[in-house]
Write a structure and sequence with these properties.
The structure holds two protein chains of two kinds. Chain A is α/β, with parallel strands linked by helices. Chain A is built from six helices and ten strands. In chain A, strand 1 and strand 2 (34-47) form a beta hairpin. In chain B, helix 2 (15-53) crosses helix 13 (325-360) and helix 11 (272-310) runs parallel beside helix 14 (382-409). By secondary structure, chain B is of the alpha+beta class. The chains are: A alpha/beta, B alpha+beta.
């Protein structure tokens, strides 16, 4: 990762309100005694309702950026503002509660609990938030219906295909009605048909509910479906393009 | 779905490991419970043997100094007829006291006319002797038939009838219904002899005393010692053994206020054998308990440690979607709690089953210093079973805390990236 790479930050102009602001955000990891700068002073805004893809080659810092946006990692330098509030001021418990309420996660490896059924997996974030059993069940069932898995609510993940598992993961991310959904390589473990289906589904949720989606991908075909794509290279934003 | 459900499902993830840990807990629990049950049976048996079998009663009341200086100068410390009557009057309204029995201990020589040997005797009324021996055996012990010879009996209709220990009868080639002569020193130091009839023989249960012990009617003892109406102590029987200490303190205060200078000993204080056995078994129990708890601690720590490593990504996911650090610790604590509870539950069932097998198989053994075989019986010692469960739960939680605390402190991105 080159420290001399030019840093490009292209703020987008959109009428929607700004959901997330990254201000000179940097992230340094230590590999033994050696410091590795994964991100360099990123300045970047995400607006409510956007369907945004972060793309770039391996090692460009996509996952690091997603971790920071998802508030599951803290920047070494700079600040992240969510809805105008500085997240660096929050304690671990406050940040965790904030994530549980506002951010949904879709992981590359689905990260479903193997001992729970699809329904129970989707109920899990509601349970963590203290939503009662009956209400959680109703909402989780509805979320699974929305992703077309009404017939599979009692199936455990090992009985589902990759695409179905990722749909369960989408339902789990959306069931808490988050304002932002982070999806790190959500299609990496899927074939092209399922990949497109997942992206279409996320896009539909974005349009229907106004939920902001930020996802990373290697697959250039999927970029055609987004309304903003951010190219990351060597820890810097190389290009930030909006699709008309 | 709640934390309990989630924890239960977590246990099924690696069911083989969960079962192995559960069995370690169960076998440990059963081992402790069975040993506790065995020692409980020994303690209660020894307590009944001391109180009812050795006729110690619950409390023994004597003049202060009787147990020390009185050994050399008994005459000075004997209770007089008047003192016995006054003490009995003072205690007659105590509802917890069911029997007050004057006693007179003495020793001397017993002879069959051809050979003589020493004896130790207790003078006691035949009625009091019967009362003291009530509740000596449990139904199970009575059914076993192994304790039949422990009963001591004096015939109230025969003033010169005595009961001799089985070893003494054997030693002097006596027989029930036969004659013997008791030779003693009176209180004033004169020699005195009396013909007696052997009305019965008994087993003291102790090899050390089974060839020298005798029971004689109190009147006969008083006559032999030329101590008309006198007693060296009063044996009290209470309604409730658990009240022994409290009643002792109350009686001591009451009798002291009435002008008596007396000492009152509990049966535990008088039965050094009970105290020694109790102390020894408590030590062994503590030793076994410590070993089993250490095994449980290591099993649970190993199990939770492996589980935490195995489920690192799951923990990362849960943390990402909103589970607080305390929630992670709570989840693993609940899993451990369930595992330990289930282990204790299985251990309890094992205890019941093995106990049933042991008690039903009529195993007998001769205890150290015992004069006869006794059945191996195991009780259900519920207080110590409960204590074992509570301690096992505490140890389980302790074992689970460190690995679950570490996993909760782990960075989410490290946990999510765990392979």
């Amino acid at each position: 990762m080159s420290l001399s790479h030019p840093r490009v930050s292209v703020p987008t102009q959109r009428p929607a309100s700004t959901l997330l602001q990254l201000r000179e955000v940097g992230r340094r990891f230590m590999l033994g005694e050696t410091p590795i700068d994964a991100l360099h002073a990123i300045r970047f805004d995400i607006h409510a309702g956007e369907f945004l893809a972060v793309w770039g080659p391996s090692g460009s810092g996509k996952s690091t950026l997603m971790n920071l946006i998802g508030l599951i990692d803290a920047p070494t330098t700079g600040e992240i503002y969510f809805d105008g509030h500085c997240t660096g001021d929050l304690s671990d418990d406050e940040l965790t509660a904030f994530r549980g309420k506002n951010i949904g996660f879709i992981f590359q490896g689905f990260n479903l609990m193997p001992v729970l059924s699809a329904l129970e997996n989707v109920m899990l974030p509601l349970h963590i938030r203290g939503v009662g059993g009956r209400e959680a069940r109703t909402r989780a069932t509805a979320a699974l219906q929305d992703v077309g898995l009404a017939k599979f609510i009692h199936s455990r993940p090992d009985k589902l295909s990759g695409g179905q598992r990722q749909r369960v993961a989408i339902a789990r991310a959306l069931v808490v009605e988050p304002r932002l959904v982070i999806a790190d390589e959500p299609t990496a473990n899927l074939d092209s048909h399922n990949s497109l289906m997942i992206i279409d589904m996320m896009r539909e949720m974005n349009r229907a509910r106004g939920v902001t989606f930020v996802f990373t991908t290697h697959d250039p075909r999927l970029l055609a479906h987004v309304d903003r794509k951010v190219l990351l290279q060597d820890g810097c934003i190389e290009r930030d393009e909006s699709t008309p | 779905m709640n934390t309990l459900t989630l924890a239960l499902r977590g246990l099924t993830r690696n069911h083989r490991r969960s079962i192995v840990t559960l069995l370690a807990i169960a076998f440990g629990f059963a081992a402790i419970s069975l040993f506790a049950g065995y020692t409980h049976n020994i303690y209660s048996g020894l307590a009944r043997q001391s109180i009812h079998g050795e006729l110690l009663g619950h409390l023994t009341l004597s003049k202060r100094g009787m147990s020390t200086a009185g050994k050399l100068d008994p005459q000075r410390y004997l209770l007089t007829l008047d003192e016995v009557a006054r003490i009995e009057a003072a205690l007659q309204h105590e509802p917890q006291i069911t029997l007050i029995a004057p006693r007179l201990a003495f020793s001397g020589l017993v002879t069959n006319g051809r050979a003589s040997t020493i004896f130790i005797a207790e003078g006691i009324s035949p009625q009091a002797m019967d009362r003291l021996q009530e509740n000596m055996l449990t139904e199970q012990e009575a059914r076993s038939g192994m304790y039949d010879r422990l009963a001591k009996k004096l015939d109230p209709a025969r003033e010169s009838g005595v009961a001799l220990s089985a070893g003494l009868v054997e030693l002097l080639h006596l027989h029930v219904g036969g004659e013997a002569i008791l030779l003693v020193n009176t209180l004033s130091g004169q020699a005195n002899a009396m013909d007696v009839t052997v009305d019965g023989s008994f087993n003291t249960g102790n090899a050390g005393t089974n060839d020298k012990f005798a029971f004689v009617p109190l009147a006969l003892a008083q006559s032999l010692l030329d101590a008309e109406g006198r007693a060296d102590r009063l044996t009290l029987l209470l309604e409730d053994v658990t009240q022994t200490e409290a009643i002792r303190d109350r009686l001591l205060a009451k009798l002291s206020a009435a002008g008596f200078d007396l000492e009152i000993a509990t049966w535990q204080e008088l039965s050094s054998f009970y105290r020694q056995v109790h102390g020894m078994f408590n030590m062994i129990f503590g030793f076994i308990f410590s070993i089993v708890l250490a095994v449980v601690l290591m099993s649970v720590a190993n199990s939770v440690g492996m589980t935490v490593i195995e489920r690192t990504r799951e923990i990362g996911t849960l943390r990402a979607i909103g589970l607080k650090r305390s929630g992670v610790i709570r989840l693993f604590a609940t899993e451990t709690l369930l595992l330990t509870l289930l282990g204790c539950g299985v251990g309890f069932l094992l205890t019941v089953g093995v106990r049933y097998g042991i008690n039903g198989s009529h195993i007998a053994y001769t205890p150290p210093n015992g004069a006869n075989a006794v059945p191996l019986l195991v009780d259900m010692d519920y207080p110590r079973i409960l204590l074992t469960m509570v301690l096992m739960l505490a140890v389980g939680m302790l074992a689970a805390f460190l690995p679950s605390f570490r996993s909760a402190r782990q960075h989410i991105i490290d946990a999510l990236g765990h392979v």
